[in-house]
Amino acid sequence: QRQMCIRDSDNGCGNNDGGRPTLWAEGTFIEINDATVNTGDYGFALVSSSGSLTNSDINVNCNGVDINGIKSVQGVDFTIEIGNNEITTDSGSGITVYDGANVELHNNDISGVGERSGITVQSSKAYIHNNEIGPIGGWNGLWLTGSFDVIAERNTIIDTAKTPIQVGELSSSGPAPSASRPVSYTHLRAHETRGN
């Protein structure tokens, strides 16, 4: 069994910086195990794909893992498993889950995240369990927004710059969240939908 070690661009995380993921997979079934990404802008981008990313070490400037959309074949929806990974970012989120994705996130160690949240779920379905999230220098340990269906249980969220869990949009008109205390969430079931 060979270990995969990948290096990528070092352009930046802004929209106009030209940063790109180390690996982009779109519309495919993929299994990544025991990979090391030890530099670069973004880690893995899994777009409308299914499979797994496991037992890997991801240390990047921007987002560690971006999951967008869902893989469907003849009306059958497939999930993505992200498990047993060490994910450290300088400024981006550890894991983002967007655009109707269906994921299981388990046993990941997520830290750093100077300008975002540890795990961000927007308009997707996620089962999030047994993760160690923190310290998080940016925002929240777990941020749920849009129309989502999330089960989060047995996660430990420590040392976040703002609230450990944020449900809904962040608002500049409300009270500013303060630094949080260590907290272990036994079970959180969150489901939010919006009407037209």
What does this structure look like?
- It is a single chain.
- The chain contains no helices and 22 strands.
- With 196 residues, it is mostly beta strands.
- Strands 1, 3, 4, 6, 7, 11, 12, 14, 15, 17, 18, 20 and 22 form a 13-stranded mixed beta sheet that branches. The protein has a seven-stranded parallel beta sheet with strand order 2-5-8-13-16-19-21, with no helix packed on it. It has a two-stranded antiparallel ribbon with strand order 9-10.
- The radius of gyration is 16 Å and the shape is globular.
- It starts with a strand and ends with a strand.
Estimated structural class: mainly beta
Number of helices: 0
Strand percent estimate: over 45%
Shape: globular
Please state the CA-atom Rg, rounded to the nearest Å.
Answer: 16 Å
Characteristics:
196 residues, mainly beta, 13-stranded mixed sheet, seven-stranded parallel sheet, 22 strands, 53% strand
Précis, in short:
The chain has no helices and 22 strands. By secondary structure, it is mainly β.
Which helices and strands occur, and which strands form pairs?
Layout: E1 4-6, E2 21-26, E3 29-33, E4 35-37, E5 42-47, E6 50-54, E7 57-60, E8 65-68, E9 71-73, E10 76-78, E11 80-83, E12 86-89, E13 95-98, E14 102-106, E15 109-112, E16 119-122, E17 125-129, E18 132-136, E19 142-145, E20 148-157, E21 165-167, E22 183-192
Parallel strand pairs: 1-4, 2-5, 3-6, 4-7, 5-8, 6-11, 7-12, 8-13, 11-14, 12-15, 13-16, 14-17, 15-18, 16-19, 17-20, 18-20, 19-21
Antiparallel strand pairs: 9-10, 20-22
